[in-house]
Write a structure and sequence with these properties.
- With 351 residues, this protein is α+β, with helices and mostly antiparallel strands.
- It has 2 domains: 123 residues, Creatine Amidinohydrolase, Chain A, domain 1, CATH 3.40.350.10; 211 residues, Alpha-Beta Complex (Creatine Amidinohydrolase).
- 33% of the residues lie in helices and 22% in strands.
- The chain has 11 helices and 19 strands.
- A 6-stranded mixed β-sheet has the order 4-3-2-1-5-6, sandwiched between helices. A 3-stranded antiparallel β-sheet has the order 7-10-11. Strands 8-9-12 form a 3-stranded antiparallel β-sheet, with helices on one face.
- The longest helix has 21 residues.
- The chain is elongated and about 70 Å long.
- The N and C termini lie far apart (49 Å).
- 44% of the residues are buried.
Amino acid sequence: MSQRVDRLRATFEAIGAASFFVSNRINVRYLTGFDSSNAFVLVKDDEVFVLTDGRYVESARGLQDVEVMLVDREFAPGVADALPRLAEPPVAFEADDLTHARYETLESAGLELVSTTGVVQRLRAVKEADELEEIRRAARIADEVYRRLAGEQLVGRSEREVAWWFEQTLREEGADDLAFDVIVASGPNAALPHHHTGERKIGAGETVVVDAGAQVDGYCSDCTRTFATGPLPPELRRAYATCRAAQESALAGVRADAEARGLDALARSEIEEAGFDVLHGLGHGVGLEVHELPVLRPTADGSLDAGNVVTIEPGVYLPGLGGVRIEDLAIVTDSGSEVLTPFTKELLTLD
């Protein structure tokens, strides 16, 4: 964890801060290993403080290389009283997490504050070896569940029933938790990129999009496959072929220094040239959260770095008829990528 803190300290000069107040729960865990619903971190040049209340203070005292301070459960007078005594101004804070009310409380206490966004998230985007191994474990679990799903019958079962089966099977295979609620979208619902799984009965001759991931020791995986439940209408077959070709083209382009928006453009152009609309970006980073940096979309800045973990998930959606999404999870390397989701992308029929 100390290396992560040192990487954060290395940003101080550029952001004009002498210390950094971390309020984002995931960022607190990333920097200290401590997961709590009410904990904050103050990073100084030569010290790290964890501020938490009496429910968690004993657990926090087991942390290494940090000073633990007991504060009131309420932000004011708790953290708001302690921070001015501990912090070296100017104090950077996470403007994309700290509420305006809490910002005003700290400002009224006399703190000189520096607004930042995404500083720790950018550090998190490049994974360390142990983080990559946890993500590999989560991906292997989900991959095995997709293999088991391939032996299941879908027609006549509700989306919710299939999602519950998938969730139970993820846990049977060793997942600590779900990375997110399992999405099962069938028939016309498959044309909705973020469909909320419901009671619709899966019919014959349609597509079923299954989007799921496991969580292991806090780290997530993410994978999507689309299945058929019998012979498909010609336009859905063409949509599947187009989506798969675009997905594989973009996946082949993943490597360190590849432009994020360029990868999105590669898949987007293939889908649009086939006459289909594109409703969302190509992908996103995965780690302690299932959606994190980097992002792959037309407005994305910058290039990929070795150690990023990204999804490649184009979709083709036909309103009222159905849809297709195919998603792989990949570790970015200097020479290409390590794909963590080897389950087949052939169009399987589960009737």
